[in-house]
Amino acid sequence: MHHEISDHVRDLAVAIAPDARRIVDVGCGTGYLLRALAQGLPDAVDMVGIDAAPGMVGAAVAKVADPRIRFAVATAERLPLAGGFDLVVSSTSFDHWRDQRAGLSECARVLRPGGRLILCDIFSPLLAPTQVATRRRKARTPLRAANLVAESGFVDLEWHSVYAVIINAISARRPSG
Ligand SMILES: C[S@@+](CC[C@H](N)C(=O)[O-])C[C@H]1O[C@@H](n2cnc3c(N)ncnc32)[C@H](O)[C@@H]1O
Q1: In this model, does residue 40 exceed pLDDT 90?
Q2: Which of 15, 118, 120, 145 has its CA 20 to 30 A from that of 102?
Q3: Contact 56 CB / ligand 1 (< 6 Å)
Q4: CA 140 / ligand 1 centre spacing (Å)
Q5: Among the CATH numbers 3.40.50.150, 3.40.30.10, 3.30.460.10, 3.40.190.10, which is that of 2-173?
Q6: What is the 3-state secondary structure (H, E, C) of the chain?
Q7: pTM here?
Q8: How many CB atoms lie within 10 A of CB 42?
Q9: Which of 9, 10, 93 to mutate to test the pocket of ligand 1 (most atoms within 8 A of CB)?
Q10: Whose C-alpha lies nearest to ligand 1, atom 22?
């Protein structure tokens, strides 16, 4: 299922940011999405996978043979990257972030002006009751997620249905200039 979702996210990324050269995948797991993006985005020269779990990063490193792709153990809330990226993607990781607001601020920080964010996870009005039970007020409805993305400095927010009813993606842009 994660691969099928990642394939949708890859297609979205290719449609939204076809010229992306520098790409980050936050919560990359074993790196499937980055490997797919390496094929879909031929202009890509620097692709970085970030994951909080050393085991995931170890598996990702073992699977990759493309010199454009690198990985690091780190969290969304503290990305070990300077700015200048064209595209930040994240697939089925956001709901795990301890501090989603801090993570989104980091995504905005590492993007160049005009750079794109694609954030895919469980987002549905059907999940409103589950938000009440989450600690740290996780964003699981489109309304709450969109507010958080906008408050993190992004513009041009747009929703895309990805998988089943509850897996959706929001795309957004860091303002130019
Ligand atoms: C369900 S897996 C999805 C992995 C991958 N994106 C995929 O679609 O196969 C969620 C991933 O998010 C990572 N993760 C959880 N919290 C994180 C955080 N705060 N920062 C970065 N990665 C995180 C986990 O270690 C895990 O690899």
Answers
A1: yes
A2: 15
A3: yes
A4: 16
A5: 3.40.50.150
A6: CHHHHHHHHHHHHHHHCCCCCEEEEECCCCCHHHHHHHHHCCCCCEEEEEECCHHHHHHHHHHCCCCCEEEEECECCECCCCCCEEEEEEECCHHHCCCHHHHHHHHHHHEEEEEEEEEEEECCHHHHHHHHHCHHHCCCCHHHHHHHHHHCCCEEEEEEEEECCCEEEEEEECCCC
A7: 0.96
A8: 9
A9: 93
A10: 27
Across all residues in the chain, what is the average pLDDT? Answer: 94
Among 110, 67, 74, which residue's Cα sits nearest to residue 89? 110
Confidence of residue 25 (pLDDT cuts 50, 70, 90): very high
* Domain extents in the chain: 2-173
Sheet holding 22-26, edge to edge: 69-73, 46-51, 22-26, 85-91, 111-122, 167-173, 155-163
Backbone angles phi, psi at 33, to 5 degrees: -65, -40
Instruction: State CA 130 to chain mean position distance.
Output: 22
- Condensed to tens digits (0 to 9), the pLDDT of residues 88-144 reads 999 999 999 999 999 999 999 999 999 999 999 999 888 888 877 766 678 999 999
- What integer pLDDT is reported at residue 35 of this predicted model? 96
